User: What shape does this take?
Amino acid sequence: MTAAMPDVGQSQPSVNEEVNKYQTEARIRKYIGPMKYVVTGLSIFWVLFLMYFNSLGSMEAILLRAWTLGFLFIFTFLLFPASKRSRGERKWPTVWDIVCIILALFAIIYFLKTYTTFAREWGGFHRSYWNFISGGVAIVMLFEASRRVVGYVLTILVGIFLLYAFIGPYIPGTFGHAGFSITRIIDQMVWGQAGIYGIALGVFTTFVFMFVLFGSFLKNSGFTDFINDMALTVAGRSAGGPAKVAVIGSGFMGMVNGSAIGNVVTTGAVSIPLMKKTGYQAHFAGAVEATASTGGQFAPPVMGAAAFVMAEFIGVPYTTIMLAALIPAFLYFLTVFMAVHFEAKKIGLTGISKEHLPEAFNVFKNGGHLLLPMFVLVYLLVSGTTPTYAAVFALLTTVVVSWFRKSTRMGLKAMIRSMEEGCQSAISVGVACAIIGILVGVVTLTSLGLVISQNILSFAGESLFIAGILTMIISIIMGMGVPATAAYIIVATVSAPLLTQLGASVLVAHMFAFFYAALSNITPPVALASFAASGLAGASPNKVSLTAVRLGITGFIIPYFFLFNPVLLFDGTNYMNSITAMITASFGVVALAAGMQGWFKSQTNWMQRVFMFAAGFLLIFPGVISDIIGILLIIAVYMWQKWRSGDGNMTRQYKEKEMNTNV
Assistant: This one.
């Protein structure tokens, strides 16, 4: 940003340690000497390899996924230490790292050499011991990679699912099953279509990697600074300006980089101290950053990475997912923005002074050309181009337009740095997608998803509302401590099908589960985005999480409304109904924000807050009668506060006149 900022160059060690627990990139090992150039060379090769085979070249899908997993293994064992003792700068990887690389490459190379024969002969294919040994090695190495990169939560969760495939005969009741041999399980996880090399890794290989790489190039072109400066010019002078800038900038960048946690620790390093300096409490500043970054996961046009998986899962074009998320995402960010505004009014905050703000003309003049890649991306997506091609062309456009001005020009070093950072950022998502394949494989093999759905349906009966509550709980719990993409895959496999059995459309069911999986980033007790923000803010993680839930309340409410009335999921079939619903719901979320913060035109009492909450729910629910009642409630609160304010002024003037008369 060009505005005056607090000094955030050196944070306290305790804060850095807290942030590093949740920021994957902070744990990446740095090499010195020849290995540094080896890692750089491998990064360039991986980028060019996937760009070629995702655009001009061709390779059988499952073989391309195997190549991708091979790259993920190499980078994981080179860059992510096995323990704290092997962190820091090194000249060479450890012996255990090398052993892991050799074992992982053995499994990948064997698969690449054998799969063509397996696919051709299939039923008649002779599965030797080497098939199962290599498959077992691949599974063990994947668990080790997940432990290093993603952490223990997802790794243990998948381990429990894998254990379930073995111990089914010993589980009583409906969750028991006949059990499977180790060879059958390995066959399913490695050689089947619903295992490691399934849809999740496939979507990462074709879509997610390219968009993460695009985000890295966009960042190094100066786009992040441009967005922050534009947000400053738009909202910097208004009440609580820095927090509004954080909502706009963090939401936008969270959408592009595909990681709520990664966005918190990058943009939050600047926005959180600035909010605190302006006058916001530490826990509120952290919550604003966490809530905005989490919202980026379901904000079009990029929507992080999970939306690409959803498009593959339900078999619809990506533009369908993008349009469906448009209204809910807008309402979510409007709620956060207005909550920030009402909080600023309540505690008497002002904006940033004009002399400390950049001029809009200069900002747009110096960086406006960096918007062109986003326009290219949206145009290509809407016109029907595949997301992969759209990402590749948008990436190339980023490089070209960066040359328009000297201050943003990307040279060879900047492009190489973008490739390295893109590869490093993609590792956590890729490894998560790969190990989630094991979970999906177990659910498919044991029919666990069907069993869970049947049990929930038996409890919910015919009530879609009760089924929605149970789906929400499952989605949030399953998503805790797990990257958003992996969280969505889990809930899409386990919980979304039960909503479709009760009459919800496939798109509505998956969007419902997706929203809550993403919101698990801010939902206690395990809220990774909130925890990362608390480290930067120096506030209690639980206090930040609870405040973030309050700020993002619309995200928890909206899915229930589109579950019963999909008009809020803009599908393009009825433009006027969707636009009308969006307008009235916008008034509704403003009312909700006012009720949550206890401020509208002035401080609200408990009755006015009840009125505002009621107005919010009525206006979000599509319907003429509910909209009229909601608007009348808002007007009633406004007039009430205006009358009370006027009465207060008249009383004060009367008392002053009486005092003067007595004197």
User: Anything to note?
Assistant: Confidence is low (pLDDT under 50) at residues 1-16, 647-663. The two ends are 56 Å apart (CA to CA). The CA atoms of residues 110 and 131 lie 8 Å apart.
